[in-house]
Write a structure and sequence with these properties.
By secondary structure, the chain is an all-alpha fold. The chain has six helices and no strands.
Amino acid sequence: MCGEIMEKNMLNIVNNMKDELLSKSSILDTSQKTALKAYNICISLLGQAAKMVNMKFSGQSYDEKYYSVRESRVFNNSNNSYFIDKKDWFDKESNQDSKESFLVYAHAVQMVRTTFYDKKKNELKKAKDNKQIENIFECQMAVDILSDLLESWQKMWESGDNYNK
């Protein structure tokens, strides 16, 4: 699988999840303000996740910079590097499509985790510590949807013609 196909598949997953949430939120009554707010937060998070999948770093899609910036962010991130254990595989891999596919996948996962998932988990913990019921509901829903997204991406990655170890 090449990077372009990986991007398309990841975006399909995001868009399907977003459509499902839009459908569910459309049947809520306007009096269900907390639920509506939580759905809107999750829909927005999925929209941002989609932007992280197809980030462009130059005027040309899928060019050298598209992949080199992703590689740098995946393997040279001083804060959180969720894929450092894949560096040896990546360096030894001769199949360019596999490497590009991995970079699209790993970059999006890393960005979603560091930008949203890890932060929402921390917010959820604080909300629970402070017994903020509405905030707990909103944060839990966001954590759950982001977890589902990351899990779906991982399953798609593992089921493809990719590095599966």
